[in-house]
Amino acid sequence: MPSEFELIARYFTRQPGDDGVLLGVGDDCTLLQPTPGYCLAVSVDTSVADVHFPGTAPAYAIGYRALAVSLSDLAAMGATPRWCLMALTLPEAEESWLAEFARGFHALCDTSGVTLAGGDITCGDLSIGVTVHGELPPGMALRRSGARAGDVLAVTGSLGGGHGGLRAWQQGERDLDDPLLAAYLLPQPRIEAGQALRDLATAAIDISDGLLADLQHLCEASGVGAELDREALPLTPGLVERLGDTDALHAALGGGDDYELLVSLPPKAVKEARRRLQTLGVPLTVIGKLSSESGIRGVPDSIPSGWLHFHGEAP
Amino acid sequence: MPSEFELIARYFTRQPGDDGVLLGVGDDCTLLQPTPGYCLAVSVDTSVADVHFPGTAPAYAIGYRALAVSLSDLAAMGATPRWCLMALTLPEAEESWLAEFARGFHALCDTSGVTLAGGDITCGDLSIGVTVHGELPPGMALRRSGARAGDVLAVTGSLGGGHGGLRAWQQGERDLDDPLLAAYLLPQPRIEAGQALRDLATAAIDISDGLLADLQHLCEASGVGAELDREALPLTPGLVERLGDTDALHAALGGGDDYELLVSLPPKAVKEARRRLQTLGVPLTVIGKLSSESGIRGVPDSIPSGWLHFHGEAP
User: Fold this and answer.
1) When comparing pLDDT for A303 and A281, which is higher?
2) Which of residues 232-291 of B touch A (CB under 8 A)?
3) InterPro entries, alphabetically (chains A, B) (predicted)?
4) CB-nearest partner of A31 from B39, B122, B145
5) What average pLDDT score do residues A267-284 get?
6) What is the mean pLDDT of residues A105-134?
7) Interface pTM (ipTM) of the complex?
8) Which residue of B has its CA nearest to A308?
9) Do B106 and B14 form a contact (C-beta atoms < 8 A)?
10) Distance, in angstroms, between A124 CA and closest chain B CA?
11) How confident is the prediction for chain A on average, in pLDDT?
12) To pair with B247 at 20 to 30 A between CA atoms, which of A177, A278, B160, B284?
């Protein structure tokens, strides 16, 4: 097995560009030049094989997805992605696997404008920790805590695809062109949508744990309650066909892994928000409203309790 | 098992102070306010149970050590620690274990001036990824690449204690008051020493992989060679008594896990460097010099090849 240093040089070192990286991979630390006056949004997410993704998934998708779930947190703050660091733990370095993993990771770096600026490689069961750094003008961060009674709730894209894709994988689907499987293994963090909404939305969160769980976080942080319109939920195309009506609804409410943005908006801002996202090709759907009465209403009573934790179990 | 959110709230959330944290644990991202004009030094290190530390070590030491190894990278750049994020993967949350783990982590946060600003907890085999952020005035970072032929090589503290402590652990020593075991499980990152040397040293690296391996990195980055004075190596007290002369020397040269700083200095800067470190209570020992001839000389021919990789194996 090549040393950590050889692997980093071979697969994770790229020529620095005009990206604020003063010193990249290869010293004790990475040196970054933040934009003066801006604040820094930082998040770390660890993706563990057979907990958060199937260990036998294509290496390209594993690399892509590990970065995507971290970038989704930047999207939910409305931050502009700048830099990331990767802490890769893997049992044995198969070079063909690593090359594909790096290709997936770098593909999303390129489309999201984030530079891999450092990291480390250690030996152990496969897991990937990605720390992302984004920037925001002062006072512009979208927090979870700004929602007010009377705001409407809206969601980008569609719901349930993450869980639908996990089910498809479990049923043997392996074609990444399958829209559900792609939604699960190659999620698209809503970076541009988050930035476009940061002067309109009162609060935002990304849907990683499932709509209900993340809505609950937003409501608790903001001290409000919510009334959901279950008929309005934008189910991922193909979801009902694969799962049936009931499971499709459950997947949208509790399945997790969708990495869409859930936002609260003053009613008068909805039209402008939708217009801006339309130019980005991202649908925005109103799915309910917020009130001063705590709790979440409009939810079917019949969601099996296991559903809400399904994302935390081995696929 | 309590949820990730409950665990974070209970053990890893502290009241924000005047520490540049605009928004701490509990949103999609942490929001930080970097010092205008300064550059940011960032590093991530993952500590995997039974690879980097014994999984049965005291939880206090595991928490302390996971942060220490990352802070050591900031020390080697001369950076002032500001913020850290922790990605904790653990199989099952025993609350008494977590409380001790958090106590060790926070103890080093307090003495090193770093604020735990975010993180996540996932389920899997025990490993801890710590991303640290430090700050530096422009142009003041200590790099690996600035050493010049004619510089002297010096090292802080003592060498071999990390490996000696690992051997002590393997032999059944469990008392953290044992100096060797403490050197291994509770290493002291040389943060103040790094800052004190940043306008004197021409290059620096922390000794995590072993003196020879890290000296090699420094020499390669700087395009120089080195002549070591093996008689001058400051062996950790008690090391010879425990390992014998030969193994003690091997531990100092190749054992790793010492987290001391290896620096290059112009000869005329040595006296001032030693004076500054003396006020910090940190010894500085000259152990050789750099030349334009590549390679490392003065090394015994007899180091078993396995030694240099020992740190990467299960203790």
Assistant:
1) A281
2) none
3) PurM-like_C_dom, PurM-like_C_sf, PurM-like_N, PurM-like_N_sf, ThiL-like
4) B39
5) 98
6) 94
7) 0.91
8) B3
9) yes
10) 7
11) 91
12) B284
Torsion B145-B151-B152-B156 (CA) sign: negative
* pLDDT at position A62 over 60: yes
CA distance A306 to A253: 13
Residue B309 — φ and ψ, nearest 5°?
A: -115, 5
Residue whose tokens read 């000696």: B164
- The pLDDT confidence band at residue A158, using thresholds 50, 70 and 90, is very high
| Residues of B (123-142) whose Cβ lies below 8 Å from A | 123-125, 127, 129, 131, 133-134, 136, 141
Cα distance from A46 to chain B (closest Cα, Å)? 7
Closest CB to A51: pick one of B27, B124, B134.
B124
Q: Which residue among A119, A125, A144 places its CB closest to the CB of B44?
A: A119
Collect all residues of chain A within an 8 Å Cβ-Cβ radius of residue B45: 87, 120
User: How near does any CA of chain B get to the CA of A191, in Å?
Assistant: 13
Give the Cα separation of A196 and B182 in Å (integer).
52
Q: Chain A residue with minimal CA distance to B138?
A: A33
Task: Kindly tell me if the per-residue pLDDT of B137 is higher than 60.
Answer: yes
Exposure string for B52-88, b = 16+ CB within 10 A, e = fewer: bbbeebbbbbbbbbbbbbbbbbbbbbbbbbbbbbbbb
Does the CB of B314 have a partner CB in chain A at under 8 Å? no
Q: For chain B, give the mean pLDDT.
A: 91
Residues in chain A closer than 8 A to B33 (CB atoms) = 39-40
Kindly list the residues from chain B whose CB atom is less than 8 angstroms away from the CB atom of residue A33. 39-40
Which domains occur in chain A, in start order?
4-136 (3.30.1330.10), 152-298 (3.90.650.10)
If you average pLDDT over residues B156-180, what whole number do you get? 95
Answer yes or no: is pLDDT of B302 > 70.
no
Among B residues 10-49, those touching chain A with beta carbons less than 8 Å apart: 22-23, 26-34, 36-37, 39-46, 48
pLDDT in tens, B185-233: 999 999 999 999 999 999 999 999 999 999 999 999 999 999 999 999 9
Dmax over CA atoms of chain B, in Å, equals: 59
- CB spacing of A46 vs B122 below 8 angstroms: yes
Structure token pair of residue A177: 């062109």
Name which of B21, B28, B88 to mutate to probe chain A: the one with the most chain A Cβ atoms within 10 A of its Cβ. Answer: B28
- CB-CB neighbors (< 8 A) of A32 in chain B: 39-42
Partner-chain contact A120 B48, CB within 8 Å: no
What proportion of chain B, given as a percentage, has pLDDT over 90?
81
